[in-house]
Amino acid sequence: MPQMTDERVRAGFARQEDLSLLHEVSMKTAGVSRLEMCIQCGTCGGSCPSAADMDHTPRMLFAMLRAGIREEVLRSNTPWMCVACYHCVVRCPQEVHIADIMYTLKGMAIKEKLFVDSTAPDFSQTFVEMVETYGRSFEMGLASRHYLKHFPMRLPGMMPMGLGMLTKGRMAMTPNKIKNIDQLHNILERAKTLEMTS
Amino acid sequence: MSKYIFYPGCSMESSAKAYMESLNTILEPLDLNLEEIEDWNCCGATEYLGLNLIPAYSLIARNLALAAKQMDGTKTVVAPCSACYLNLAKADHYMAERPALGDKVNEALAAGGLHYTPGTLDVRHLIDVLVYDVGLEKIRSKVVRPLHGLKVAPYMGCMLPRPDYQHRWSDHERPTELDDLLRALGADVIDYPLTTECCGGHMTQISPETAFELIRRLVADADERDAHLMVTVCPMCQMNVDAYQNEMNHFFGTDYHMPILFFTQLMGLAFGKQPEELGIGVEMVSSRNALADIGVEVPVTQDPSAPRKKDEGLPMPRRWTKHEGKEVVK
Ligand code: SF4
Ligand code: SF4
User: Can you tell me the mean pLDDT for B100-111?
Assistant: First the structure.
């Protein structure tokens, strides 16, 4: 990209490129995100089974990241609609870690309380609370809490299914707990004090 | 006897019990010894990664650290669930790709007296081990009841062949491992282009309309191609296609009946095991008729999800649009 001249910026034709948001997201992503390598080809959106339900395609979202419009990015439902199918990931010519970037954006949106619909963050939160308490996930506790709060109208339709899962022994009434739960707690407590800084 | 370290994952104890039971029946014939990771914990599924990076990876890495202690003669960790497999593989891969992440995760693990050096273990999915280590030849040699005439749609799901950090699969979009294995059992494997499309994952919990459409596509395509049943390698896929099929039908006004079984259940059948030993019959969409076609009799289990005899009675809400915000196409 040609360097923008100061005159153009001063004259208001352009603004100084601010890539701080792009870099922040990249740094907070697990592996080497390659986010800055995106060439805006659109292969990701074209491969995405959830694109129709997204506010922005992944390509658009990455352009917004580069433009530094933080609030719009973090309010977008796109990361929440991503089903992590990795279709875009294996097709992206630049090998951008798209699905992992979506995870990062979810985490940032939760921290900054910017995503409006609480269903998805609540589900993740409830799931994680169960795992932190027992060390294992507990479908029954998770489902009942989640449905009561977010989908009460679905419950009548779900009852036969839930009952079927119970009678067929596919859902436990009580959670399993790991033996060394204290060790897991210590690990997670320490982990929560750590952040990616480089 | 080949030994492997085994990470079962939470659903093998509950919703995917049938997967575990059927897997247990095929271990001996195939000379496999799976040694469970002592005191393993949940991998966080697809939930923790989106909440908090270091805790999410530390949760996964505790399992890797524990597994590494059990290495004795093998460095392969086998996971039967695609989501667990991907999480374990992801942690191992990214801790190496991004040493800063590896350091932080190990700092957290140290609080529990543990440590994991990325690259120590090979993380593999069960079907990978069966096809490439055990081999199709051996599997074929154990077949006493070939599944001739059973038309199956091989459903690999999305998280297994992608993103494929270690290049283990024949293809990212149309891998053939499951097809080959089912063919070795004598089954009639249909061409199923949607084999690696997503089942909706956790969307059944947070955006049902999105999930139902994904499930509908999978089921409709298998149905159009005259499959008797779908075959899966993942508890999450099984759960979505099986347990939510009824609700999906309700949502679209369709009446698909597409059973979905675990590949290990079909292996057990072909190896001459009885349906009861294989957890066949606990699926919500019954495979009874499909298997009757090849002369396998599935015991009747009480099925509360069966349609009600009378159509009158209390009206059930068909949709829930108003209360959940999103507009849904009629
Ligand atoms: S496929 Fe990759 S390079 Fe193309 S727009 Fe998407 S992220 Fe950018
Ligand atoms: S990983 Fe997410 S963004 Fe990429 S194609 Fe799948 S759903 Fe779409």
Answer: 98
| Pairwise CA distance, residues B103 & A190, whole Å | 13
- Pick the atom of ligand 2 nearest to A85's CA: 6
Whether the ipTM is more than 0.85: the answer is: yes
Q: Look up residue B144 and give its two tokens.
A: 């006493």
Phi–psi pair at A65, nearest 5 degrees: -60, -45
Query: pLDDT averaged over chain B?
Result: 91
The domains found in chain B, sorted by start residue, are 2-125 (1.20.1050.140), 143-329 (3.40.50.11810)
Is residue A128 exposed (0-12), middle (13-18) or buried (19+ Cβ within 10 Å)? buried
User: How many Cβ atoms are within 10 Å of A49's Cβ, its own excluded?
Assistant: 20
Per the CB < 8 A criterion, the answer to whether A119 and B207 are in contact is yes
Q: How confident is the model at residue A6 (pLDDT cuts 50, 70, 90)?
A: low
Atom in ligand 1 nearest the alpha carbon of residue A42: 5
Question: Looking at residue B128, what is its pLDDT?
Answer: 98
- How many CB atoms are closer than 10 A to CB A88? 25
Query: CATH 1.10.1060.10: which residues of chain A?
Result: 6-111
Name the DSSP letter for residue A100.
Answer: H
Cα–Cα distances in Å, from A17 out to A8, A9, A56, B34, B278? 12, 10, 22, 55, 61
The response to whether residue A38 sits with its C-beta less than 6 Å from ligand 2 reads no
- Minimum CA distance residue for ligand 2 atom 7: A82
A60 lines ligand 1 (CB under 6 A): no
Homologous superfamily in CATH for domain A6-111: Alpha-helical ferredoxin (1.10.1060.10)
| pLDDT tens sequence across B281-324 | 999 999 999 999 888 888 776 454 444 444 444 444 444 433 34
Peptide bond into B154 cis (omega under 30): no
Position B321 scores a pLDDT of: 39
Question: Using CA atoms, how far apart are residues B301 and B288, in angstroms rounded to an integer?
Answer: 10
What is the DSSP code (8-state) at residue A57? -
From the CA of A99, the nearest ligand is 2
Q: Quick: pLDDT tens for B6-45.
A: 999 999 988 999 999 999 999 999 999 999 999 999 999 8
Q: d(Cα A143, Cα A147) in Å, to the nearest integer?
A: 6
Weakest mean pLDDT among A7-16, A28-37, B223-232 = A7-16
Reported as type and span, the H/E element at residue B6 is strand B2-6
Q: How far away, in angstroms, is A11 Cα from ligand 2 center?
A: 40
* B53·A124 Cβ contact <8 A: no
